[in-house]
Amino acid sequence: MKRYLGFDDEDGVALGMLRPHARARYAHLADEFYRRLLGHDAARAVFSGPEQVARLKQTLIEWADRMLQGPWD
Description:
mainly alpha; elongated
């Protein structure tokens, strides 16, 4: 995949430099993502309740941080 996309070490460095700045926005990203998702009846129907959504928000935050942290292998 990296080869297909032309992703190299320089791209990894750039993502790593973005990480400290992006971290402050992770919670907003997760809140906004689920706010929009829950605005659709069909999407809202797959969730068991607010506790599940809270857990999924945390998972999204962790995923976003790992995406910018690497490794990108």
